[in-house]
Design goal:
Length: 274
């Protein structure tokens, strides 16, 4: 039988925030005790940096491509970390933790909020690792502190929105295996049909049109502009001009807001039916 996804009577915003904090800390402790998940946070992004920088890098533009690449890798990292939200919620459903949480005098929505907030922390760790890896291969921030801070803030906002999309996937899938398959089916085309790794101008017509309006393209472009990195690999092959490419920061914020407006109520609805 479905149960209402509302805070119990007598609960306040303060107690809701406490519920979210407790669940976020619980999720972070789970991740810190799982070495496989820690490898996913640290090792997988590093593998992509080394693979694209030194296997494909020389053929695609050398040092200029490596500077171009970091913004794309950072965007991919925060997008793929949505998988932690999906896997975590699917595991909690399978092991009966969701039912145990429902038996406690706490907000039901805090179950999802706590998960997405803990994964926001994971995204911060991922961006720090990516920044250090980038510095090691020659990437540099050539703008001021506030510009760089704005870039990181846009990446975290997009990652937070993607975590809510992952929450919907995890609640719908119902098992860790199904959640992983569902998320990979969505995230791989989302990140690779974009200019995260290659200029979108080199893609065939229909794929180029998708890439031009893909939020991953605008977030990667925002990071490159905020960090003062090349926005195109080859100056002779400039990116197609669209409103999104001319206003990548605004488009990234708008796209993240739209994802949140859709995913937050959808996650609450699905949680009510689990």
């Amino acid at each position: 039988m479905s149960r209402p996804v509302t805070a119990p009577r007598g609960r306040t915003i303060a107690t809701f925030l406490v519920d979210c904090e407790v669940l976020a800390i619980r999720n972070l402790r789970t991740i810190s005790r799982n070495w496989q998940m820690l490898l996913g946070v640290v090792l997988q992004p590093l593998m992509f940096v080394l693979l694209f920088s030194y296997v494909f890098g020389e053929a695609l533009g050398g040092d200029r491509y490596r500077e171009f690449l970091i913004g794309g890798i950072m965007t991919q990292t925060v997008a793929f970390n949505a998988g932690f939200t999906a896997l975590g919620l699917a595991t909690d459903i399978k092991t009966g933790m969701i039912d145990r949480f429902r038996a406690l005098p706490m907000s039901r929505v805090a179950i999802v909020v706590g998960r997405t907030v803990s994964d926001l922390t994971v995204n911060i760790v991922g961006l720090i690792v990516m920044s250090l890896a980038g510095l090691a291969i020659g990437w540099r921030i050539d703008t001021g502190f506030l510009d760089a801070l704005a870039g990181y803030a846009i990446a975290l906002l997009f990652g937070f929105a993607m975590s809510w999309m992952g929450a919907v996937g995890g609640l719908v899938a119902g098992s860790a295996e199904a959640a992983q398959s569902l998320l990979l089916t969505i995230l791989f085309p989302l990140t690779f049909i974009s200019s995260a790794f290659i200029p979108s101008t080199t893609l065939p017509g229909p794929l180029r049109m998708i890439a031009n309006w893909n939020p991953v393209t605008s977030v990667a472009g925002s990071l490159r502009e905020c960090f003062g990195n090349p926005v195109s690999v080859n100056p002779l092959l400039p990116e197609p001009v669209t409103w999104a490419s001319e206003n990548p920061q605004w488009y990234s914020i708008l796209a993240s807001a739209v994802i949140l407006l859709i995913a937050v109520p959808l996650a609450a609805t699905v949680l009510r039916r689990v």
